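Encode chain A's predicted structure.
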Amino acid sequence: MFEVLHSYGLSETEVDIAGELKKEKVWLLQNKKTGERCVLKRLNEDKTPFPILLHSKLYETGFHIPKMIRTKTKQPYVQRKNHYYYLMEYVSSSGSKPSFQQRIEWLARFHKHSLFDDWIPPHSPSFPEPTDILDAHRETTCPKEFGHYLKSISPFVRSMLRIKAST
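Encoded structure for chain A:
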């Protein structure tokens, strides 16, 4: 582990392992001089470094999440012995849980900002239209002999179905 910390410019004499928060995956570290804490996380190499890059990008975008600590070479993670390691600041719990409304707002904001321009392929992905989804749903759930009833429903109900299908 100290080999990884050296990549961040930290040595065994500067840092204590204050605790193992998740067995062999998450460690709480404390700077002996300043008392500052940070968290070292480990991902298996069979997973991609995507969660690390996403965390870094979300912080840079302004999300209130722990700051990523970059390596001496300004990289967001270190790859050693079939694992990815990354270091972030430690944020202590405020004691209060966010409301349901706050969680929904944060999730919406995350989805709005999670498609970063530099991560989108040159050709835009194609998504089905809500009407295509409804037609496919009707074909699988409604016998053909009832199809004429679906055509006769009011435009208001049809628009509500489109909204439901797109959410």
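Residues 100-113 form the longest helix (14 residues).
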